[in-house]
Write a structure and sequence with these properties.
single chain; 5-stranded parallel sheet; 17 helices
């Protein structure tokens, strides 16, 4: 769907493209479909609620995103054999945000035959990761140093991923649809609306090339599989299924009220540094204005659509079951996927959780804002009611606080 923009936004988009081309010394941007989300992003940089630091930072993200696009496309031209790399089976974890998908992703990534994509390689895929230096690549320390100043922040309490841990696919998207892990949508409303109203087929076709690039020199073990995750574009998951026939899906489900307010709180934590004026929560009479709920309902509809259209490719997991027994829940997923659970599954999971709860993960906040949402109103919505009936989701009468997930 097309949107109208003023001349200033068009000129700024051109300036950003020129800057990226100058930085990389490449000029072939490929398919121009990336210009839609880029132009929406540029338009939102004029949001008066964004401070000067935020405006400059968010503009730099756009330049960096285009630089990655130019470099990857140029590298693929130089090495066309990458596009012949066979993609192995994929276990793809998704759901609405804040439904336990991060925890599950980390648990399933402990499988010795699984290959997750880590944050550092998603953000900087060139040069392609190598098996011999995968754990010592200098990009790991560089990225970790960049994110360490955020320790102790509200963001660390809500959601934290180290440089060498599995992360969202969005970090490596090549078309300006995944910037900052899509965590700034409360401030970038035109950009968020573009995401909701347009196809992601081109995004996923580009991501398929990134997948081939990342496993070219660093594949999973023989007969292994990829363990991927993305909740930020779940509302387009049916399109992902079309582009990736190798994928089977694990859908995570949680009380929509709890996941909604937790998602709002996470976005709030990300956006605070970019807000003009005194810090404060993004209440419903401020920036959210029910848009978060509307977006969540689109996601819930997409999950129901996928489960109905591709039942043989879908396994469902309730957040409550994962919280009750991570070992039993993970074992059940392998069984339903028709895969062998790894030897020592319980030891792997218990060891992982012990490490996180021993200090690697900061404790989540004891209370979070509800951002004007009421549990009864959320549960009374027809889309939510249909979703909960479809997947057997029940209300969380008290908030489940886990020291690992922050959910």
């Amino acid at each position: 769907m097309s949107m109208s923009y003023d001349e200033a936004a068009l000129e700024e988009m051109t300036a950003i493209k020129r800057e990226a081309a100058a930085k990389t010394e490449f000029g072939d941007f490929g398919d121009p479909s990336f210009e839609g989300p880029l132009l929406a992003w540029v338009h939102d940089l004029g949001n008066p609620k964004i401070n000067d630091f935020g405006r400059k930072f968010l503009r730099r993200l756009a330049v960096r995103d285009l630089c990655r696009r130019l470099e990857v496309l140029a590298y693929l031209k130089e090495h066309p054999e990458i596009l012949e790399v066979e993609i192995p089976p994929i276990v793809f974890i998704t759901g609405a945000a804040r439904t336990g998908s991060t925890l599950l992703h980390n648990l399933m990534a402990t499988h010795p035959d699984g290959r997750p994509f880590l944050r550092w390689e998603l953000m900087e895929p060139l040069p392609p990761p190598q098996l011999e230096t995968f754990t010592t690549d200098p990009r790991i320390a560089k990225l970790q140093a960049a994110i360490e100043p955020l320790r102790g922040s509200r963001l660390e309490q809500m959601h934290w991923v180290d440089a060498d841990e599995p992360d969202e696919n969005t970090w490596s998207f090549l078309d300006c649809t995944g910037m900052l892990g899509r965590g700034v949508t409360p401030l970038m409303k035109t950009w968020a609306r573009w995401m909701e109203e347009n196809s992601f087929s081109a995004t996923y076709r580009d991501f398929r090339k990134v997948v081939q690039l990342l496993i070219w020199k660093c594949p999973p073990p023989p007969d292994g599989h990829l363990v991927l995750k993305c909740v930020m574009t779940t509302m387009k998951v049916v399109e992902f299924a079309d582009v990736f026939p190798e994928a089977r899906f694990v859908l995570t489900h949680r009380d929509p009220f709890r996941s909604l307010v937790s998602s709002c709180a996470t976005g709030d934590a990300i956006c605070q540094a970019f807000l003009a004026g005194p810090p404060g929560p993004l209440h419903e009479d401020g920036l959210h204005d029910q848009e978060a709920f509307a977006s969540q309902k689109m996601t819930l509809l997409a999950l129901m659509e996928l489960a109905k259209a591709e039942p043989a490719r879908v396994v469902n997991l309730r957040y409550a079951d994962l919280m009750s027994s991570a070992v039993a829940a993970t074992r059940s997923i392998y069984q339903r996927l028709g895969m062998d659970a790894p030897d020592g599954l319980e030891e792997r999971i218990v060891g992982y959780l012990k490490e996180q709860r021993g200090g690697k993960r900061v404790a989540p906040p004891s209370k979070i804002e509800t951002f004007g949402y009421q549990a009864d109103a959320v549960w009374g919505d027809p889309t939510v009611a249909e979703y909960c009936e479809t997947f057997g989701v029940e209300p969380e009468r008290s908030r489940r606080v886990d020291t690992l997930t922050g959910s």
